[in-house]
């Protein structure tokens, strides 16, 4: 789950607004004082009498200067949500009918729709942004992004339901693919890959003497999705090797595909995992759960 610091940062981004001259006057800042603050760099002028603090996030600042709101995958990435391929240009929400907008740089993706956010908001509504992201992303990537936001606690189950209520009916099949237990985008993508191969996948399994593992596949294969953040350095490698030995003593086989390979060499990982799970189970391996057999023709599990 996300830390309190992550939640606080997300709340700050989502609550960011620009200040109009009227709003500044209500704070006791007249035009002359505003001009002085701008000259001193304490305030930044966006456009058309809109101002923000100088420490504003660069993407929010860019959104405000273009007359839009940070949206879709750009907003989600800023909030710490997993987005596999961060776009080169910003995704921004614009209100239909808005006039006198400045030219948008090449690469900026405009999402034209009405919003529930107040006029001064510089970030789109989170549920709206996630709905839009589902339309922009490939299916696997959309599931990974939704899993991430749910795991971080930025949305709850009713909000997930609202997202799918906003989407066309054809997106409904994605709902059953979500699993908030996934702790990284790599785990989501690997889970989908394994289930696509017809495997039974148990998620976040606690094993005596080993600890918690990412996946137990078909009752005998442990799959751990290793990333640099959590597996770099000799201490981490020693811990992983101790865990693998303990798992082997219980009859499990462990494989550790790298997160970067899952992200950027997906087809290679798919071929490798297909070869691993397609072979007969080692005779000395354990079996977690009820017995099952694999159909060689279909690659699916028969129970």
UniProtKB/TrEMBL annotation:
Stored Gene3D superfamilies: VSR Endonuclease (3.40.960.10)
Region (Disordered): 281-303
Organism: Microbacterium allomyrinae
Database matches in InterPro entries: Restrct_endonuc-II-like
Protein name: DUF559 domain-containing protein
């Amino acid at each position: 789950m996300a830390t309190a610091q992550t939640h606080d940062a997300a709340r700050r981004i989502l609550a960011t607004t620009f200040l109009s001259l009227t709003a500044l006057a209500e704070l006791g800042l007249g035009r002359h004082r505003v001009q002085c603050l701008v000259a001193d760099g304490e305030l930044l002028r966006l456009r058309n009498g809109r101002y923000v603090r100088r420490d504003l996030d660069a993407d929010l600042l860019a959104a405000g200067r273009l007359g839009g709101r940070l949206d879709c995958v750009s907003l989600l990435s800023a909030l710490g949500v997993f987005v596999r391929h961060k776009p080169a240009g910003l995704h921004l929400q614009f209100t239909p009918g808005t006039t006198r907008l400045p030219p948008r740089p090449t690469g900026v993706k405009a999402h034209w729709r009405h919003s529930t956010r107040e006029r001064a908001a510089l970030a789109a509504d989170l549920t709206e942004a996630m709905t839009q992201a589902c339309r922009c992303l490939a299916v696997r990537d959309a599931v990974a992004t939704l899993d991430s936001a749910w795991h971080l606690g930025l949305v709850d189950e009713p909000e997930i339901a609202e997202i799918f209520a906003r989407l066309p009916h054809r997106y409904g099949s994605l709902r059953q693919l979500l699993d908030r237990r996934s702790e990284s985008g790599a785990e989501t993508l690997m889970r989908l890959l394994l289930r696509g191969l017809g495997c039974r996948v148990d998620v976040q399994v606690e094993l005596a003497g080993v600890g918690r593992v990412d996946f137990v596949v078909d009752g005998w294969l442990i799959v751990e999705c290793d990333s640099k953040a959590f597996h770099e350095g000799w201490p981490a490698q020693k811990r992983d090797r101790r865990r693998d030995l303990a798992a082997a003593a219980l009859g499990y086989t462990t494989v550790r595909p790298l997160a970067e390979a899952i992200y950027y060499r997906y087809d290679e990982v798919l071929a490798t995992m297909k070869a691993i799970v397609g072979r007969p189970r080692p005779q000395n391996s354990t079996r977690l759960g009820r017995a099952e057999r694999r159909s060689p023709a279909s690659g699916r599990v028969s129970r």
